[in-house]
Each structure stands twice: as structure tokens, then as C-alpha cells.
Amino acid sequence: xxxxxxxxxxxxxxxxxxxxxxxxxxxxxxxxxxxxxxxxxxxxxxxxxxxxxxxxxxxxxxxxxxxxxxxxxxxxxxxxxxxxxxxxxxxxxxxxxxxxxxxxxxxxxxxxxxxxxxxxxxxxxxxxxxxxxxxxxxxxxxxxxxxxxxxxxxxxxxxxxxxxxxxxxxxxxxxxxxxxxxxxxxxxxxxxxxxxxxxxxxxxxxxxxxxxxxxxxxxxxxxxxxxxxxxxxxxxxxxxxxxxxxxxxxxxxxxxxxxxx
Length: 261
Hints:
The chain is of the alpha+beta class and 261 residues long.
């Protein structure tokens, strides 16, 4: 009898908790998403243009990100990217990681990221094979290399809008950007903070009006502090990159002949 009484009390408490939560939700309804149709159209056209017309590109890639509350220095890299299969080569040109090289090819090397460390000990280091999502592979990056590139940025932004998992705002303006001339200035902002989502609040894309590609991306946290800045400079598209450009045996690269584990 005592167990039955306790069970009834627990069920009553649970029902009361649920009803209180529902009442609180009704009294504080979530804001509605505010999507500028023109902004969404530009984003869709940019993504479709990337999917239909880009086979590859090479550029100088600049990146700085905030870790442990500190905004890091600007990193400068040479980047090569092929869309199918998703393939990336990067070489650091400055900073403490100068001469670091990484290669990732979707579906190759058991899905591993090849990393040849840079810095003073780089020439003596073996090449590492890392899970691109592992903490070690992401020690100096907010995003895994599987998300790198202009196309992946457009894809994730569109997916987030269409999933409608949370209320957001999407607006657009025209601006003159110092890195790429006249651009579409797209701003996506999350309207409700949630622990289940990433720490960023705002994403800003500068999409070049002529090439319809996002040459500058900025992300901000909930205190409007810069989380990350990503710039693509001297972009050359459809240059005919081949398997050799994403092969650690390429003679122009410095990967050791004996790859480490």
C-alpha cells in the first residue's frame, strides 16, 4: 500500500511539474523567426552557384579565433580545396605554426586528417593521422576541418535556417567590404540563448556580388565579442586541382615519407 501511495504521489508531482512548465512556456512564448526573403534568396543562389559551378579553388586563407576568452593572432595559410570529394590542403605561412601542413580527403586514409606539425620541431616531427573531430585535431580550431571552406559555410547556414530548430533573424544589407569590394552583407542572429546549441549568437557573411561567394565570415558570442574571423583572399576558382594536390607524397610538400600513427 505504501508503494502504491508513493507512486501516486510521484505521478501527481510529475503531472503538476509538466503543467507548470507548459503554463510558463505559454506565458513566455518564444519569439518568431524573422527571415528577410531577399536575404534567403541571395543565400540560396550563392549556395547553388557554389554547387553547380565550383570544382575547386585555391587562395590565401586568414583566420583568428577566440580560445579561453582570448582572441588569438591572425593565422595566414595557403589553401587548396576541391569540392568532390571534399579535399583540403593547408600550409601555415606565418606564426608559431609556420610550415605546418594538413591534408584531408573525404573517404580516404580511413577518414583521418594528416598533420605535419610546424614550428621549430616541425622538420623533426612525424606526420600524425588524427580523427578530424578529436580534441587533438581541434586544439587550435573551433570547427573541424570537415566544415572548412566557403561551400560548407553556406551549407550549414542554409541547413540551420531550414531546420527551424530555434527562432532566428536573417537580414541583408549592401556594404563595401575592405577585403572584397562591394558585397551582400548577410547577418544571421539567434534570438534565444540555448545550452543545446553552439556558443555563437551571430554569423555575418560578406558575399561578393560578382562571384556570389562568401569571402569573409565573422561569428560573435552572446556578449557580442568576436569568436572567429575567416577571410579568403586572392581566390582563384576552377584551376584544375588533381589528386596530386591532396597527396602527402607531392614533392612540393614537406610530409615525411614514413607517415606516423
